[in-house]
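Hey team,

Filing this mostly as a record. A colleague (T.K.) asked me to run one chain through the structure pipeline before their review meeting, and I want the input and output archived in the tracker in case anyone asks later how it was produced. No errors, nothing strange. Just documentation.

Input sequence:
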Amino acid sequence: MASGNTISVAPVEDGWVVILTDGRELARFVGPDAKRQALRYAASTNPVCRHPLIDKVRRAREKRGGWRTASSQS
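Output structure:
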């Protein structure tokens, strides 16, 4: 049985797709920069741990000075 933990980048009719070896599609990119975007996505994605560690999120929030709300962004 193949493991679904390997990411592949493949061309499709309208652009490029990032898929797992078991065939599940992670992302699809279209347009002139599609291949570059797909390669960047594949390089920055870990299919085993798809969400950032909570400690990294907390550190980023502290650096930024807390959460921004929709009303404080304008």
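Quick notes for T.K.: The mean pLDDT is 76. The longest helix spans residues 34-44.
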